[in-house]
Specification:
Layout lengths: L1 H24 L9 H17 L3 H6 L1 E9 L2 E4 L2 H11 L3 E3 L2 E9 L2 E13 L5 E15 L2 E12 L11
Parallel strand pairs: 1-7
Antiparallel strand pairs: 1-2, 3-5, 4-5, 5-6, 6-7
Amino acid sequence: MRRWMLTWCTGLLMLMPIVAASAQEGVARAPRADDEVAIVKTLGQMFSAAQQGDMDRFRAFTTKDFYAYDNGKRFEGDALMELIKQYQTKGYQYIWSVTAPEVHVGCDAAWVTYVNKGSIRQPDGTMTSMTWLESAVMRWEGNAWKVRFLHSTRVPAEQTPPAASH
């Protein structure tokens, strides 16, 4: 009986770290004061990587299951960056910026709406200013925010996008 009890207790002690780790996985991440800044910075870094045509850097700021709605289409994974790189090869240059962001955080997920003010330089040097209304769904992975989903709608040139309301 004593040997059985010793074996049982030893087994229980060996399982405790596994049970503790499993319990922590289910604990929700509490929003932090710096989340808004980190989320906007992540978007800026993702756009910077895209502007430079750097696929590896772009992937560093997106989840493995990233997708986007842009220009009336759904782009899975690398497809959006591949399209951007095709145009960059033809001589197009893109400039994007996140302005008027509204960030909402809940545990390990967040969404952000913003106005993307930018421009496109054509191969002949002509610069066209453009504005998009965009939103992104973010996910906390490991120790950083990453973009899970991006949606972009172009604002017609004759319209002014609405200002953020808080």
